[in-house]
Amino acid sequence: MNDLNKVVKNVVFSTNQFSEITMQQRSPSWLLCDYINYVWTLKRHIKTDELSRYTIDWSPKRSLGINNRWDYWVERAKDQLYCRMETLFLDNIKTSTLAGYGRSLRKFYSFLCFERKCFSLQDVGKEDIDVYKKTLVKRDLSRATIEGYLLPILDLFKLGKELQETLTFNPFRGDELWSFARKNTSNKGGHTETLLPGEIFYLINEAIKLVKNADKTLDLLDKYVFIKANVLDGQSSASIFKKQYNYPVSKLIVDTRALYGAAITVILVLIAERKHELALRSSKDVLGILNSELDILYGLEKKTSGSESGKRTKVPVIKEVKDAFRVIMRLTSHKRLESNSQHVLLKLPLQHSTSGNTNKSYYLHTNSLYSVLEVFSQSVNFTRVTLRPHMFRRAFAMLWMWRYEIGGLEELSLLLKHNQSEFTRAYTDDEDVWQFMSDVEQKMTFSILNNAFLKKTTINGGASAALNRYGRLIQANSKLLDSTAIAEFIDDLIVSKNLKVIPHSDGYCFISNSTKKNSKCLDEEGELSEAKREEKRCVGCPNLCIDDKRKEHWEKRIQLHQNVVDSYASSEVHLASMF
């Protein structure tokens, strides 16, 4: 135990209500140090994450002064983190989340201790929390960040029965917390900036070209690594390399990083990979597709798996993805041999493997990943936004959604490995998504919804959910179309989409090239069959639209069905009473 922790153990916490025995008993598996330590190290949820991400330093960020009570507030924070992780009454959280939770709590308790001069939790009132909220607003934070700062305060009340001490009042009633964060955020969108279609296709095209022409860079890298490993003391490996191959090492470093970023971009765009999924990719799984005719890549996903071990995933891959993985395996082969690691994403041999605390780390951590993406974007002169892995995943979702706009959310959820459709909807509800729609799609959507907005008709049925999704975007981006423009649009639509509008007594069937396959009345040959049109099929068909005139028809049919159900249930009750 270092000197600081000795002081903490023997002096600082001597006045705490916890006994030494109680503190020693608290040794959960997720805490990799003594409970009494002033620096907590949590067990990594993702093995390849930076260790610093799982570290909480309880040291005060200012001079303690005379008669300080910081030791008391540190114990309150530790107690809450322990209870939050062990409680059965709130949703489970991962250690990666707990680390941020702890830092938010440390900030709040530091505010109470040093700014508000509160002696204990019993002294904290609503006014203290209101002042704290005002300090957050002044910092111009995002909605998610504000929520992250305030959630531990709400839990301080929710965990009241499990904590040693708690608040004497509920700090947020109803949805007050969420409402406050929503109204005072600086980033109204609340998500990573969106790459537009032209940008996505430009980036993927440039990335594929770099991957395709990677042999020269890969060969030079191997030669430089060999020289570096065999250079004599006092000799410069960079000078020897430049003399032999007339190629500066500084340029090789840039070329190698750009190539690494390009290969990662191909993978992120074409298979919608999460950052941590890519980080957890096993070289065994990747070699399985590189050394065979297989086109299914297996992997591991932990963010939404609901388990510590994660869940196995599989995704189809095309040649471009295989080529990208082949380049990455070659770029990282030197570090893989040195570290004996089975992971795919490792540092380049041109990077150091030690951090400031001399702990070796061979993994390509978040900042290093951002760096190679930045070098790639600079190499292709893309400067509008700073590339982040999540941008590509969102781009994949939005391109897929607008290509198959009707009935696509459930299938898209499977592709993105989302547990709930709300996450998928958040990916495709976007203020920039208008850019993803073709001119014809924009006109089609507007013409249908324009009638709905003007109360000329009300759309219901399976197709209505997808159509209504466009409403906010159209109102923001369109002008009213006159009858001539609508007529021209219909002509374009019939030609380009092969659209058929089939009227029935119960509604309209909107059938196009892309939506026909979703119809519930297809025969064995995949063609529309009038014989298969029946209410139980139509009611669940994504291509059915019901306007005002046909709404009454469906209400009557539903009531008739309900009468039959009620009658059947009554008969069962009557029969049962006879025995």
Describe this structure in words.
The chain is mostly helical. The protein folds into 3 domains: 3-183, no CATH class; 197-393, hpI Integrase, Chain A (Orthogonal Bundle), CATH 1.10.443; 437-553, no CATH class. It has 25 helices and 7 strands. It has a 3-stranded antiparallel β-sheet with strand order 5-6-7, with no helix packed on it. Helix 11 (249-271) packs parallel to helix 17. The longest helix has 30 residues, at 548-577. The radius of gyration is 30 Å and the shape is flat. It starts with a helix and ends with a helix. The model is unreliable at 1-21, 403-409, 415-434, 469-491 and 568-579 (pLDDT under 50).
Question: Would you summarize the structure shown here?
Answer:
With 579 residues, this protein is mainly alpha-helical. 53% of the residues lie in helices and 5% in strands. The protein contains 25 helices and 7 strands.
Average pLDDT: 74
The count of strands amounts to 7
Largest sheet: 3 strands, antiparallel
Number of domains: 3
Element layout with pairings:
Layout: H1 3-10, H2 20-25, E1 39-41, E2 55-57, H3 70-86, H4 95-115, H5 126-138, H6 143-158, H7 176-183, H8 197-212, H9 215-230, H10 237-245, H11 249-271, H12 275-279, H13 283-290, E3 296-301, E4 311-316, H14 319-331, H15 333-339, H16 366-379, H17 389-403, H18 409-416, H19 421-428, H20 439-453, H21 464-468, H22 471-477, H23 483-497, E5 500-504, E6 507-511, H24 535-538, E7 544-545, H25 548-577
Antiparallel strand pairs: 1-2, 3-4, 5-6, 6-7
Helix pairs in contact: 3-4, 4-6, 6-7, 8-11, 9-10, 9-11, 11-14, 11-16, 11-17, 13-14, 18-19, 20-23
